Structures are given as C-alpha cells and as structure tokens.
TrEMBL record:
Its EC number is 4.1.3.38. Gene3D superfamilies: 3.30.470.10, D-amino Acid Aminotransferase, subunit A, domain 2. It is an enzyme of class 4 (lyase). GO terms for molecular function: 4-amino-4-deoxychorismate lyase activity. Belongs to the class-IV pyridoxal-phosphate-dependent aminotransferase family. This is Aminodeoxychorismate lyase. GO terms for biological process: 4-aminobenzoate biosynthetic process. It comes from hydrothermal vent metagenome. The keyword Lyase applies. GO terms for cellular component: cytosol. Keywords: Lyase, Pyridoxal phosphate. PANTHER family: AMINO-ACID AMINOTRANSFERASE, AMINODEOXYCHORISMATE LYASE. Its cofactor is pyridoxal 5'-phosphate.
Length: 286
C-alpha cells in the first residue's frame, strides 16, 4: 500500500518531495512537532500546536496552515494509511531561498505532515528502565533555541550517538553552571520522600507537552511538585527517577552515570503512569 502524506497542503501518494534548495534541508531552518496518535486521534494536539506557534513567532517563520488543516490532515492520513496507534510528524521550514543565511527572498514556506506506525517501548524495557549517560556538552540555559523544537538538531544527534555507544539509552545534560537540565529528547523528574522534582523552564529545557501534563496530573492527585535549579547531588539519594516525552510517555530510569542507581519502576512512577494512561483513554485535556 502506498503511503499518503501531505506536502504544502496537497495529499500525495507519490512524489512527496521538497526543493533541493529548501532551507530545512540546507540549513536546518525549520520547526517540527511529534504528536502521538491513539485510536486514530492526535493526543494533546492543541498543546503541540501552541508550542509550534511560539517557536514560529520566535524564529519569524510563517505557519501556512491552521489547526483545522492539521486536525483534518491527521484524520485523513490515519484513515488512508490504516494507522490506529502511531505518530504524526508536522514539519515547517522557511522554504526555498537563495544561498546564505539571510532570509530575504524566502517567501514560500514549506510544510509536511506524515502519520506513521510507532512501536512503543516494551513492558520489559519499562521494567528495566533507561540508563542515562551524562553529556560532556554543557547547555547554555539562556540560548534562544532551548524552548523551540528546531530541525537544527546536530548537537542532539552527536550527544545521543555518544551515549548509545557507551551503552546508555539517553544522555542527561547539565547547564554551564552545573544545574540538571534535560535529556536529548526528554524531560527528567525524580522522586524524594514522595515529592516530585523537575528542573524549571529556566534550566535550558524544552517545555515538554508530556512534562506539563505530568506536572498537572501530579498536582491534581495530591503529589507535591517542586521545580527549580538542582545540581546532580540532589539526585544521588533519589527514591526513583523517570523521563517523559510524547512517544516514551513515562519511562522509568534505572541509572544515571556515576550519580544514581535505582530499581524501577518506583511507586510514584507507576502511579503517574496510571494517571497518564487514564488521560490518554479519556483524551480530556486541552
């Protein structure tokens, strides 16, 4: 079966291509969102689009579509491609333009949408938990791209590749000051004395959609959430640890290089996972 995709608002089953001069290809000049699909419906789509709009405003990239275009597009692609549980990838770039970094002449922005199957981590992996390396690359917590899902991701590619070669599943970054920041593609939480801790937004982290949902679910169910600037000493004696993103959902952590060793999944992690699964089933959050 041929895959249906969307390129610049047109449904295509073949020749789904963008220009060789597209700045998303030549310069990484673009934005994207990764949206989980459950039961053929996008989960927390409004929040993903809000973050994309914030990134577009910060980068002066025009979004040549509206939320209705994306809602209808995902529904059509799920139907055409037979996707019940999968992942939608929405990408927008500044489009084709002349050579160089200047944006003059970039008048036709490009956007694409795909919906494809996605295999979630196995139950065995969730019981085993993720191993985290600590990145040698420090994050500038004031860098303007921290809060943006940019297609300029070579630093993340290099960091994760090094972690995987060392036998880890992910890599935890620290800020220049030594504060805990985030993983390459996930936000981090830990539990101590039944309180939930996570780095605050001013630690150079991406404002994760799943992160925010977990914070809200925890607070709604009587779990105290503490956000702030924390050094690695804070996690040495943590009771449990977890990371979150839209595709991993909530993943227990078994170790952080030379800092933390645990026996996942912990009781609070299991409770949060139950709350999150109930949220997915209800799809009742805006």
């Amino acid at each position: 079966m041929k895959e249906t995709t969307i390129v610049d608002g047109e449904y295509r089953t073949e020749n789904a291509k963008v220009s060789i001069d597209d700045r998303g290809f030549t310069l990484g000049d673009g934005l994207f969102e990764t949206i989980p699909v459950y039961g053929g419906k996008p989960f927390l789509l409004g929040r993903h689009l809000n973050r994309l709009e914030a990134g577009a405003l910060a980068t002066d990239i025009h979004l040549p579509f509206d939320s209705e275009d994306i809602t209808k597009g995902i529904a059509r692609l799920c139907n055409d491609n037979g996707i019940v549980r999968g992942v939608a990838r929405l990408t927008v770039t500044r489009g084709a333009g002349p050579r160089g970094y200047g944006v003059e002449g970039c008048n036709m922005h490009t956007w694409t949408l795909t919906v494809r199957p996605y295999s979630h981590p196995s139950d065995e992996k969730r019981r085993e938990g993720y191993k985290l390396a600590i990145s040698a690359i420090r994050k500038n917590r004031l860098a303007p791209l921290n809060a943006i899902k940019s297609t300029s991701a070579l630093d993340k590619v290099l960091t994760l590749n090094k972690a995987r070669k060392s036998g880890a599943d992910e890599s935890l970054a620290l800020t220049m000051e030594g504060y805990i920041s985030s993983c390459v593609s996930a936000n981090i939480f830990w539990v101590k004395d039944e309180n939930l801790y996570t780095p605050s937004l001013d630690c150079g982290i991406l404002p994760g959609v799943t992160r925010q949902a977990v914070v809200e679910l925890a607070e709604r169910n009587g779990i105290t959430v503490l956000q702030g600037k924390f050094e690695t000493a804070e996690i040495r004696n943590a009771d449990e640890m977890l990371i979150t993103n839209s595709l991993l959902e909530i993943m227990p952590v078994s170790s952080v290089e030379s800092v933390f060793e645990g026996k996942p999944p912990g009781s609070v992690t299991l409770e949060l996972s139950r709350f999150y699964n109930e949220l997915i089933s209800g799809q009742n959050i805006s």
